[in-house]
Amino acid sequence: MKLSVHKGSLNGTVQAPPSKSHTHRAYMLSALSSGTSHIRSPLFGEDTNATLDAVGMLGAEVRVEGDEVTISGGNLHAAESIIDCKNSGSSIRMLAGIAAGLPGKTLFTGDASLCKRPMLPLLNALKELGALVESENGCAPFSVTGPANGTEVSIRGDISSQFISSLLLGAPLSPSGVTIHVTTPLASRPYVNITISAMQAHGVFVEETEDGFFVPGNQQYKAADGFVSGDYSSAAFILAAGALTGKVTVTGLDENDPQGDKAVLDILSRFGAKVSRSGDAVTVEHDTLNGIDVDLSDAPDLFPIIAVVGCAASGITRLFGAAHLAFKESNRLETTAAFLKKMGADIEATDDGCIIRGGITLHGAEIETLGDHRIAMSGAVAGLIAEGETVIDDISCADVSYPAFVSDLKKLGGTV
Fold it and tell me: What are the b/e assignments for 124-148, b being 16+ CB within 10 Å?
């Protein structure tokens, strides 16, 4: 579905969508836990729905009533039919680690984009732990046959934090403890922190070691009720639009949430926007913006929208520390630079980010999203500050993380 955007100012208040990261983990951990867990206000998006379908196929009892999901778990088994994770990297990667701990063979696949995303480091790690893994090219489709009973594994940490989360989630299924050696610097560390925090909420503890993590043996996941807080990653698009055009407030953002993309508040403030908080409500107001340097190694998903802000800021903005963006739904380093260049920006992609010479007025263009939700939403925000019409070729891909994105833009006065 195409979306037409014209220059305009956003003003008003919207509710942040529930966190995609928290929702994935809540579904998986509830399925692993003995007893019944109640999850209030999860994200009902395409990615998280793929996870919910998958845990049902693995043997969890799932019930959805309004804004609450109830999952009875603790008796998982290999799926009898292939698990289709659609476009969700979080689903396929973290579920693979869980499947490795279950007796029997589980098959995984996804859409064309997901089947191109790298899985080999994780698949090799699961083999090292004793699982039988079958894959033609180190990507989906693949199968995992467990149980894996190994006690030690090594894996790179600079491609995807989801690999580490996958091994952590599956570790308690091993009869003995599991030691995970991370052989390179760990990218997107806050996402691993979210995983560990969620595991602790379900009664399983993780020890940090000099080069990774140790999950002690003789632990069992236990049912736990939870409320899914707002998603800073999705809220970032609205908050950035406020910094660029007007004054917006996003509610439902927990100040103490471990989400790494909470960094967007500090980043926008450093650009020069007015940022304030009252409880779970964050307000961002436009002001004079100036270029800054931003290390995105812990918050790489912010890259496309922060690049848009950098284009509007006077002077030079340098974004760095996000080389692993090459392995996302699209190569976001290239895709972001491409659509902003098409809109007239002076931007150069680098190996781990970009350099922007800002302050140039953007003009409308047709933006090719390549099915990447963060490119689609960043392009729409860029359209709010561009002269003429901006057309997003497929805004429906935003549904994986922020189904209400277009309606929220309209509610805030966006000309879409």
Answer: bbbbbbebebebeeebbbbbbbbbb
Length of the chain as a residue count: 416
**How far apart (Å, rounded) are the C-alpha atoms in residues 41 and 349?**
38
Structure-block tokens of residue 355: 């350099």
Is residue 69 within 8 A of residue 42, CB to CB? The reply is: yes
Q: Are 5 and 380 in contact (CB under 8 A)?
A: yes
Q: Going along 16-167, which residue ranges are E strands?
A: 35-40, 61-65, 68-73, 83-84, 104-109, 132-135, 142-146, 152-155
- How far does CA 183 lie from the centroid of its chain? 23
d(CA 8, CA 6): 6
- CA 357 to chain CA centroid, nearest Å: 28
Write the DSSP symbol of residue 246: S
- pTM here? 0.95
Residue whose C-alpha is closest to residue 270's, from 320, 309, 325, 304: 309
174/262 Cα distance (integer angstroms)? 34
d(CA 22, CA 5): 31
* pLDDT tens by residue, 355-394: 999 999 999 999 999 999 999 999 999 999 999 999 999 9
Q: Is 150 helix (H, G, I), strand (E, B) or coil?
A: coil
Distance, CA of 51 to chain centre: 13
Tens digits of residue pLDDT in 230-262 = 999 999 999 999 999 999 999 999 999 999 999
End-to-end CA distance of the chain: 13
Strands 274-278, 281-285: parallel, antiparallel or unpaired by DSSP?
antiparallel
Collapse the DSSP code of 163 into the 3-class scheme (helix H, G, I; strand E, B; otherwise coil) and give the result.
helix
Q: Which helix (H) or strand (E) holds 320?
A: strand 315-320
Examine residue 304 and say whether the peptide bond preceding it is cis (omega within 30 degrees of 0).
Answer: no
The answer to whether the bond into 403 is cis (omega within 30° of 0) is no
Across the strands, what pairs with 36? 72
Of 391, 245, 249, give the one whose Cα is nearest residue 308: 245
Catalytic residues: 301
- List C-alpha distances in Å: 211 to 181, 183, 214, 263: 6, 7, 10, 25
The full 3-state SS of 216-228, as one line of letters, equals: CCCCCCECCCEEC
Per-residue pLDDT at 102: 96
Tell me 58's DSSP state. Answer: T
What 3 state SS string does 109-134 have?
ECCCCHHHCCCHHHHHHHHHCCCEEE
